[in-house]
Amino acid sequence: MFGMIKNSLFGNTEETEYKLLSSETKDGVSFEVRRYDAAKFAVVSSEGRSFDQVTGELVRKLLMYIGGSNEQGEAMGTAAPIIITVYPRNDGVLSRRLVVGIRVPSIYQQSPPTPTDSAIRVEERPGMTVYALQFGGFAGESEYRAEALRLTRTLGETAPFQRKQYFCCSYDPPLKPYGRRNEVWFLQDEP
């Protein structure tokens, strides 16, 4: 636990790099289109509990892993954002299934440390193009849902993005009181 706290407060935070394809404003709402390369992520899943009930617990598991709770005892620094994959129902309410992931820092991409927590797995995620909408404040399920609805309305019905899932992203440690950065990402359909 101490390793996780030390790592998140004093470790280096590596922000996931991307290529900015465009920056757009429609109806007063600004968003970006970005391309992310394939990378290895540490992920943990949950089914049966709501977003707000379980995200803190799952994020802590991942922070423990990158903070040194792995077979090699390696504190890797921190990475941002933490990406929560959610699966909305047709009415917009989130299902009780989610996947929380954090990109393994660059110097560990070739050979990530082995998790000691059996709930955590390391997986290769393919490159992706996303529509990204940024917002501030502390974000829980209701804030992410509201921003996802705003991005959906901004992009319109014909925009080529996946509607069965989206990503809720947080860039800041939980104790940061102001200047917080959150984003909603919609995965663009590949041609």
From TrEMBL:
Predominant location category: cytoplasm
Cellular localisation: Cytoplasm
SUPFAM superfamilies noted in UniProt: Probable bacterial effector-binding domain
Keyword set, alphabetical order: Cytoplasm
Annotated Pfam families: SOUL (PF04832)
GO cellular component terms attached to this protein's record: cytoplasm
Entry-linked InterPro entries: Reg_factor_effector_dom_sf, SOUL_heme-bd
GO molecular-function terms, A-Z: heme binding
Domain of life where this protein originates: Eukaryota
Protein family according to the UniProt entry: Belongs to the HEBP family.
Stated role: May bind free porphyrinogens that may be present in the cell and thus facilitate removal of these potentially toxic compound. Binds with a high affinity to one molecule of heme or porphyrins. It binds metalloporphyrins, free porphyrins and N-methylprotoporphyrin with similar affinities.
Oligomer status and interactors: Monomer.
UniProt-recorded name of the protein: Heme-binding protein 1
Organism encoding this protein: Seriola lalandi dorsalis
